[in-house]
Structures are given as C-alpha cells and as structure tokens.
Write a structure and sequence with these properties.
The complex is a heterodimer of chains A (314) and B (175). Chain A has 314 residues and is an alpha+beta fold. Chain A has helices at residues 3-32, 55-63, 125-129, 155-159, 195-199, 210-223, 267-299, 301-313, and strands spanning 41-46, 99-103, 112-116, 135-137, 143-145, 166-167, 177-178, 205-209, 243-246. Chain A is 36% helix and 11% strand. In chain A, the strands form four sheets. In chain A, strands 8-1-9 form a three-stranded mixed β-sheet, with helices on one face. A two-stranded antiparallel sheet of chain A has the order 2-3. Chain B has nine helices and two strands; from the N terminus they run H-H-E-E-H-H-H-H-H-H-H. Chain B is globular, with a radius of gyration of 19 Å. The chains are: A alpha+beta (314), B mainly alpha (175).
Chain lengths: 314, 175
C-alpha cells in the first residue's frame, strides 16, 4: 500500500464522516420545531358542553361501517362498564374508534363526559415506531395508516401515549391495527368535518384549523373567566395534537394523563437514532482502515525501512 | 310581560315574523297576532322528527333576550354583549338561523371566517349547536326535559344509526 492511498483513505473517511454526522443533525433540528402542517385541521373538544348522548359514537360507527355495538348507542348502561377489576373505563376497540366515558368530579359536581379517539399527534409516536412505514401524517392533519403493509407487530399500540390503536384480535388470519383516521378518506380530504363532529348536537366538538382552534379555546377561557381550567390539553402534550380539549375540572380527574412530556416521543430516541447511521457507515470503514494500516506495517515492517534507506543513500 | 314592547311595533314585527316563518318553516297559529305560539324546527331533521317548539309556553318562562339576544329590540341580557349591542332596535329578522349557520364547519364558511381578520365573533355556534346549547343549558338549570327524545322523536333512520335493536351477545360482554 502506498502513501497516496493512505492519504486518500483518510481524506475520504473524514469527508464521509462529516457528511453523515451533519445530515442527521440537521434533520433532528427540523423535527424538533415541527408543529404540524400549517393548514392542518383539528377538533376542539369542550368537555363542559358534552352531555354524553353518544351521537358521535353512533355517527362514527355508521361512517366507518363498523360492526353493530353490543348495546344501542343511547343505552347509558355502558357508562357503568369497567374493565380490569374496575381500574379501567371503556377504551377504543376494533369495533369502536371513539368512545365516550363518564367521570364523577371530586367536588361532587355534575358528571363529566369525555370522548376519546386518536388525537392525531403532530409528531405521532405510532408513526415513528412503525418499521414498515404504515403510518402517514397527512397535510390535513390526520394520522392514517396503510393496513396492507401492516405486519401486526403492534409496536404502535405500545408507542401511543394515549393507548388508542386497537387490534383486530377477532380475526385469526388477517388481523390488523384499527383506529380513528379523522374520516380522512371520506370526509376530511373533501374539506368536511369528521362524522362525529357533524353528529354532535351540542357543538362540544368544534372543527377548524388547529391554529384557529387554539385561538377559539383561549377566547372561550377569556369570555367566561373561571369556567375552564387554564390549559388546552393537546396544545403542547407530546409535541402537540390535532385534537384539543377544554375542561372545567382538572384534567387528571377525567382520565387524562397529565404527566406527558411536551416534547414529541421521537425526541427521546432522536439523539440515539442520529448516531446509528454514523456508527453503521463510519465505523466499518474506519476500523477496517486501522486494521489495514496495522496489517500493512506488520507485513512490510522490514521492507519499508530498507527501501527508504536505500533510496536515501542513492 | 316580556312581549309587550313587541306589540307596540306591529309592522316591524310582521316583517320579522314573516322572515322567521319563511326561514324556519315556522307554523304560526292563526290566532296569534303578536308572537308565534308554535314554531316547527325542521331544517336539521334527519335522524329525528322536527321539533314542535311551544313558543307560547317559553315566552312565559324566559325573557325574549335569553334566546333572541338583542334582536327583538329589548335590552341585551348579557352585560358583555350589551357593550356593543346596546341599541334597542328590532332586527329585520329574529330567526336563529339568520346568524347561526347550519353548516358552521364547511370549508367555505371556515374560509370566509378566517379571511376576516377583524372578526370579533370567532366562536359563534352553528345552528344545531345554538339550539342545543341554549335549550339543554336552560333545561338543565330549570329542571326541564333533557333527554334527546323528550324533545324530538327519533326517525327510522335515527333508530338504524343508533342501533336501537342491538342485543348484547350471548355469553357476556365483549371488550
């Protein structure tokens, strides 16, 4: 091996190292400031307006052509259902992409009803956890998924901070993940609100651009001082969600996880993930370079010196 | 009586009434010279039958402004609204749907709303929301009926959407 090839090797490895280390860093910086698409839509859920009629559940069932429920949608008996030894209220399932639960506030005031569904995160953890890239955050704000590529690993179910994606355990041969898709295909893409919003009699669900909804939420708090908890749930949680909530009672009393970070879930692993391409691309080249250099010296230890000496004496 | 000032302005009232009759497809009792006794609210009827709203009954229990804001020419009940809406003038229409649009989330309406940067009322409910927030809100406070079918009977289409005939599966509940 000549001196030129060694120089070339060092230059090349330095250059590629620079490219690889800079590129992910730039990408990481961009994702940290991503606050959703500018024209992304959202829904503001005002818990003070919900009367627990479950029209949203019925509308969702119809729109998404889901199987018939076990009980009629106007049967209040479902509010008394609990699972896992009474620790858990109803959750979204393969048969119900949205569910309304009833909560009794600690201060003894009237029961509060809370609708749950996919919150359509700005930076969805389900999307980042999916290794077959089944998930997409659309420019309209919806988090949709391609069930054709889903391999059923259920990483998204573990990753979701709101425990939303459900799984079709009932299907033995073609199970897949199921969740609310913001009525993306049938309504949102055409500029229409999702079926649940259209079905809500109380306008507990307000549809609009996410940016406008935050203004509306603040306006509601300003207009009726003392009515609401001074917080818009979903404005900052896990990097922001398309669905936002207003409440008159503390959010933790009505089933919300108030311990969530304001950073997107991906931020937890972003630094680590940025080093992966560097390690994978640079380390093999670098260490095989070291190895070759060491071997080279070993093999030609005597030869090199004698030839240099010979040349010097000439 | 809350409706006395209205009776003093019969011409305006006729005009206002006529508009509301047309827009709400309202049925005005022939005997009522001043305010309608019954109003049929059917613009949104799909899953439920139209509501036969007993206007005469409600006139006795609430001030006009509680539902109609300042449009009937009476002082605005809400002091925050009265800061601007102070002129005691009867509006050309007192119908809910002339201000509260039936499609508050249509792309077109959202576009118009957001294009108007000086708009103050950015949070005005749509027609369905305005009806229910006002009616159910007051009924809860006053002990009036609040069940869906207390006010409007569900249609066959409504029964289908709500799966009124759903039966729990044999062998216990599923999750």
């Amino acid at each position: 091996m000549s001196k030129i090839s060694r120089r070339r090797f060092l230059a090349a490895s330095l250059a590629s190292g620079a490219v690889i280390t800079l590129a992910p860093a730039k990408k990481a910086l961009a994702s940290a400031t991503f606050e959703g698409y500018p024209d992304g839509m959202g829904v503001l859920v005002d818990l003070t307006r919900c009367v627990g009629c479950r029209s949203c559940e019925a509308a969702c069932n119809q729109e998404q052509q889901l199987p018939a429920p076990d009980l009629p949608f106007d049967d209040p008996a479902v509010f008394d259902q609990t699972f896992h030894g009474g620790t858990q209220k109803r959750r979204t399932t393969e048969k119900a992409y949205t569910v309304v639960n009833r909560y009794e506030p600690k201060d003894g005031s009237a029961p509060v009803y809370r609708k749950i569904q996919c919150n359509h995160c700005n930076e969805p953890a389900c999307l980042t956890s999916c290794f077959v890239n089944a998930y997409t955050k659309t420019k309209e704000g919806a988090v949709i998924y391609n069930s054709k590529v889903c391999v059923g690993c259920r990483n998204c179910m573990v990753a979701c901070p709101f425990n939303i994606p459900a799984y079709s355990y009932s299907s033995a041969f073609d199970p897949m993940v199921k969740k609310c898709i913001f009525c993306h295909e049938t309504r949102l893409k055409q500029g229409q609100p999702p079926a649940c919003v259209a079905g809500c009699p109380q306008e507990a669900l307000t549809f609009g651009h996410r940016a406008s909804l935050i203004k509306i939420a603040r306006e509601r708090m300003r207009h009726q001082p003392g009515r609401y908890v001074d917080h818009i749930y979903g404005e900052k949680e896990v990097g922001g969600t398309s669905w936002l909530y207003l409440s008159a009672v503390p959010f933790e009393e009505v089933g919300f996880d108030t311990s969530l970070q304001t950073e997107p879930i991906i931020s937890n692993v972003k630094d680590f993930l940025a080093t992966v391409p560097m390690v994978l691309a640079i380390w093999p080249a670098l260490f095989s370079g070291f190895h070759l250099l060491a071997k080279h010296k070993e093999n030609h230890a005597g030869d090199d010196h004698s030839s240099v000496d010979e040349e010097a004496h000439k | 009586m809350a409706n006395t000032p209205i009776q003093s302005k019969p011409n305006y009232l006729r005009l206002g009434l006529l508009t509301s009759v047309l827009l709400l497809a309202a049925v005005v009792s022939a005997s009522a010279a001043a305010v309608p006794e019954k109003v049929t609210l059917n613009v949104l009827a799909e899953l439920y039958e139209p509501v036969e709203f007993n206007h005469a009954l409600h006139v006795d229990v609430a001030e006009c402004a509680v539902c109609h804001h300042q449009t009937t020419g009476l002082p605005e009940a809400d002091s925050r609204c009265a800061r601007c809406h102070s002129g005691n003038e009867l509006n050309s229409s007192v119908a809910c749907r002339d201000c509260h649009v039936a499609e508050p989330f249509s792309a077109e309406y959202l576009r118009t709303k957001e294009a108007d940067s000086e708009r103050y009322h950015i949070d005005k409910p749509g027609l369905k929301g305005a009806y229910h927030l006002n009616c159910v809100g007051c009924h809860s406070e006053m002990g009036g009926p609040t069940g869906c079918q207390d006010c409007h009977t569900r249609t066959a289409a409504g029964d289908a959407v709500f799966h009124a005939d759903a039966q729990p599966p044999v062998g216990g509940k599923s999750h």
